[in-house]
Every structure is written in structure tokens, then in C-alpha cells.
Amino acid sequence: MREYTGVTVSEGLVMGPVRRIDRGVSGLGRLIHDRSKERALFEAAVVLAKDELRGLMEQADGDERDMLRFQLVMLDDQALLTEISNYIAAGAGSAAATERAGQIFARRIRDLPDEYLRQRGADVLDVCSRVVEILDGKPRQKLELEQPAILAAESILPSDIISIDRGMVLGIATSKGSAQSHAAIVARTMGIPAVIELGEEFLKHCDGHEAVLDALEGRLILDPDETLQQQVRRQREEMAREKARLAGLRGTPCITRDGVPVSLLANCSEPGGIEQAVAEGAEGVGLLRTEFFLMKGSIPDEEEQYYFYSSCLAAAQGRLVTVRTFDVGADKLVEGMMLPEKNPALGLRGLRFCLERRDLFQDQLCALLRAATKGPMDVMFPMVGGVMDFRMAMDEVEKAKANLRMRGLPFDEDLKFGCMIEVPSAALCAAELAAAGAAFFSIGTNDLIQYTHAVDRMDARLDMYYKADSLAIQRMIAMTARAAREAGIPVCVCGRAAADPKIAPLYVKLGVSSLSMASQSLMDIKEVLLNTDLSEVPSLA
Ligand code: PEP
Ligand code: MG
Q1: Mean pLDDT score, 333-360
Q2: Candidate from 285-289, 292-296, 367-371, 464-468 with smallest mean pLDDT
Q3: Is the CB of 270 within 6 Å of ligand 1?
Q4: Are residues 380 and 405 in the same domain?
Q5: Which residue, 407, 445, 400, 402, is CA-closest to 426?
Q6: Which of 323, 351, 422, 450 to mutate for ligand 1's pocket (most ligand atoms within 8 Å of CB)?
Q7: Does a structural domain hold residue 505?
Q8: Among 90, 170, 282, 320, who pairs with 16 as Cys (CB 3.0-4.6 Å)?
Q9: What is the CA(495)–ligand 1 centre distance, in A?
Q10: Higher confidence at residue 103 or residue 141?
């Protein structure tokens, strides 16, 4: 037995033979005599690559089709084509120029702070390598597997996965790779266990060997002995039973034993995660985080955001997506964008930051108002302290609408705006917030606990003071829920406590109408609620 450790990007446990994908070596280094011929060769290869992609698109659907369409569009991208032409003009062969430009483009995209856009980096590499292979005289073949296998490669390209019969791929093991790559995301979405960064040694020895891919612990064991094989078989049976049992609850409405309905929603940050959440039974997205756009320093413009939010709505397939406007500050630092603060948790956080940087806020609001024409969407503001904050935010919404009218762009006039309740002052003034027009509340317990109890949520030493079910927190939640009920608006909890089986029933008892959490926890919480009679849940408030 030989064990290699890596990083899990899609969970699961499988056993089977390993099949190494070898892309071989291309003739990138050949001597170039005539630049115009190299350009003509490149152009001919692009025509063939487009034909291949169109052929693949006819057999694909959904996500795969979108991915192939994006790759097709890249072959018309002027910036990419010019870069390749420049390398050819500088003396590179058509294949070398394509490969080099592809790598530079992919790197640029991968540095973007958004997972969805970063995954497109893999698509650029994929489509460029298709052109390179054509130039090398070996158009990409559909990979044929005689038996189900664990695919091994340096890194897996998106089209590697979709060109293979789904049932034939047991798992994916790569020596390099990235958790943000499209292939990793496709693996997660398709439920294929995947471990990356297993190292070069693993690739040398893996082909044709039996292996256990343990994408729970992030490891791969070559040539497992009989004891390990039996142990894996038992563990897989157990996992299958538990998964099937919980999956059986996906279609069951979430209603407590005493008849109180609860909406179970997912916390997400990109379209792939939304698709997964829908597949796992989410009724919608209760919290779409957007600040990661800013957190790596590049500022997304309105168009980029519009595309991103539209993709999120498409992924939700008609279910409501609740988008939170940028929530930066405190532990969510944006390099180069924020001045040092003595007390950042009490500083220019969330909505306060947006009201300081109205240029960024306007771009986001315009993108959201436009995207909202594509499907059901709500928008909420983080770190609202009271009515004044909400009014200022809504003034910005009016400005964004006026701007869109002036530009003649369609947008959703009736888009609803709500408040996150994360600061005690907001909970104490929930009735006034509803009266000021907040269309819903979403209680962010992660922060509400921090601010109510004056405990730094990042400091593990203070855990004993950080209580999701303290009397004070129960009062805050009950107060918010009462104000919501009287105003006839919904109230959700989207902090981590919503996924705690001991806390979720309590919050529902206190009047919360929906809970939003990581999608993996949805069915666990549904099971708890289905077995709960709220009259038996002790509460202090
Ligand atoms: C919260 O505060 O509960 C919340 C969901 O927001 P975040 O954890 O992103 O601050
Ligand atoms: Mg928060």
C-alpha cells in the first residue's frame, strides 16, 4: 500500500482502478520560417476547434453547454486573438503562441476574486489546448474507458470530465490542480469525489493500479490491502444508507410536528454552489455573499456583476435568491481599500462602508436592479444600525434607478430591499425598520451574538461568552420576529446557528419563518424540525 495526501475538493469515498490521462508532449518548440504561414495555420486550427466545440454542444445540455459556449466565444475574443498574433509576429510558432497566450489569459482570470469567473480560467486553458492539439495533428479524442476508473492527471480540464460517460468516472485525483478550477466545481456539482495536489510521485506510480480515493480525509491509497478494502466497502454502504435516507426528505415540506412551516434556504457565494444547494433540497438562497468580489483587490464593474448575479439567478432555477450587498470591514479586509481602524468591528463595516464608497455601491445596486429582471431576487443590507442607515441606503437605490432610467436600461422597479439584523440597535428598532419600508429581515446571528455580548467572534478563547441561545439573543430574535409578524414581513436567520440542530427549533419557536445555512446541513435540520413539537422546546424569551 502506498498513501498520498492531498486536498479534497469534492467529498466522497471510492475504490477502483486508476486511469492516468496523459496529454503527451506537443511540438511547441519547432522552428518557424514563415510567420504568415503560422498565422494561417492558427486560423485554420481555430476553425476546426470551433467545429469540434459545436459538435460537442449538440450533445451537451445545461451547464456543459454553457461552458462549451463560453469556450466558443473565447475563440472570437479579440484580446486573446491579438495576443496570439503578437507572439506569432515575435517569432513564436502558432502552437507555442496559443499556449503562451492561453496561460497568461487564464492566470489573469484566475486572479479575479470571484470563484465563478476564476473557473473560466480553466476554460481558457481548455480551449487553447484544443487548438494546440489540432496544430499538433492530434485532435482531441473522446476519452474511452473500458471500465469505471479513478481519473488521474496533472490537472483535469473541464472537457475531460464532460467528454466521458458520467458513470465511468469514479473519482478524480490530480497531482496539481486548484480548488477553484472549473473542473473541481464540475466535480462537486456532479458529485464526483475529487482530491487534488497529490504530488508528482503519485502520478508516476498510479496508472493501472487499484486505489482507494478517500475524498473525506483528502488522501489516495494505491494497492489497498484486503483489510482496507473491506473497511471501505462497509463505510460506503453506511454512507449510502444515510444519504438515501436523508435524500428521501428533499421533497418533504418542512413542517414541525405541531404544524409550523419553515422554509429551508442555502447560504451561497456563486452559481455552482447554488446549483448544488438546489440539488440538495434548498428552497432558495437565503444569503448570497458578494464581498469576495472585492476581497482580492480588483473592483468588479457593473457589467461583470450583472453577469454574475444573472448567472446566480439562472442557477437557482426560479427559486428566490436573497443577495447581500458588499459586507466588508472588520475581519473581511479589502487590501488597499480601507484605512486602518482602531476598532474595525465597530468601524466602517457593511453598509457603512458602502455609504462611504458610493461609487462601488452604485455599481452594485445598478447591477442588482438590472439582474432582478431575470428571476426572483431580494436584496438586503448588512450592518444596518437603525432607520437612518436604511433610509440612506434606499436613497442610493433611488439614485441607481434614476441612473438606469437615464441610460434606458431595463430593471426591476419592484425589487424588494430588506435589512440584516446583526446589531442590537437594529433588533431594538425592528418595528421602525419595517415601518420605514424594510421588506424582510434576515438575522445574522454570527454578528448579532458578537455585538450583543461584546465578544469578538474570531477569538476562540471567548467561546464561553458566545452563546446563540442566551436570554439576550432569544429576546433579540423574539423582538425582531414580533415586529416582522406585525408588519406582515418574513424573517430569516442566516447565521451559523441556523444549522445547529439544538438551536434551529428554538429560533423557529421564537417566530423565525426561514433558516438559511450551508446546503450540506439542510436535510439534517429538516429531519430535526419534522420531529419537533415547538410546544416542547424550552425557550426563555
Ligand atoms: C452573520 O453575521 O450572521 C452573517 C450571516 O454574516 P457574516 O457571517 O458574513 O458576517
Ligand atoms: Mg454578519
Answers
A1: 86
A2: 292-296
A3: no
A4: yes
A5: 445
A6: 422
A7: yes
A8: 170
A9: 5
A10: 103
* Dmax (CA) of the chain: 84
Instruction: Output the residue whose Cα is nearest ligand 1's atom 1.
Output: 444
- Please indicate, yes or no, whether residues 14 and 56 belong to a single structural domain of this protein: no
Q: Confirm whether 205 is a catalytic residue.
A: no
145-159, 246-260, 428-442: range with lowest mean pLDDT: 145-159
Number of domains in the chain: 3
Same domain, 286 and 217: no
* Domain CATH for 203: 3.50.30.10
**Burial call 142-176: b when 16+ CB within 10 Å, e when fewer:** ebeeeeebbbbbebbbbbbbbbbeeeebbbbbbbb
Q: Output the nine-digit C-alpha cell for 96.
A: 507555442
Q: Against a cut of 0.85, is the pTM above it? A: no
Question: Model confidence over 31-68: pLDDT tens digits?
Answer: 666 788 888 889 889 988 998 888 888 877 777 787 88
Instruction: Provide the residue range defining the domain that includes 14.
Output: 2-21+143-227
Tens-digit pLDDT profile for residues 362-393: 999 999 999 999 999 999 999 999 999 999 99
Measured from the CB, is residue 444 less than 6 Å from ligand 1? Answer: yes
Residue 234 lies in a domain: no
> Closest Cα to atom 4, ligand 1: which residue?
444
Q: Which of 468, 472, 480, 476 is nearest to 517 (CA)?
A: 468
What pLDDT, on a 0 to 100 scale, did the predictor assign at position 11?
83
**Strands across the sheet containing 194-196:** 2-5, 219-222, 210-214, 13-20, 149-153, 169-174, 194-196, 7-10
Nearest residue by C-alpha to atom 6 in ligand 1: 444
The C-alpha cell 461584546 sits at 454
Is 209 assigned a catalytic role? Answer: no
Domain for residue 242, yes or no? Answer: no
Where is the domain boundary, 111, 135, 159? Answer: 135
Residue 111 is part of a domain; what is its CATH number? 1.10.274.10
Query: CA separation (Å) from 121 to 94, 118, 157, 182, 284?
Result: 21, 5, 10, 8, 28
Tell me whether residue 238 is in a domain. no
CATH code, 445? 3.20.20.60
Closest ligand 1 atom to the C-alpha of 291? 9
Which tens digit of pLDDT belongs to each residue from 484-525? 999 999 999 999 899 999 999 999 999 999 999 888 789 999
Tell which of 168, 199, 227 closes a domain.
Answer: 227
**Pair (430, 297) in one structural domain:** yes
Ligand 2 mean position, distance from CA 333 (Å): 14
Ligand of minimum distance to the alpha carbon of 326: 1
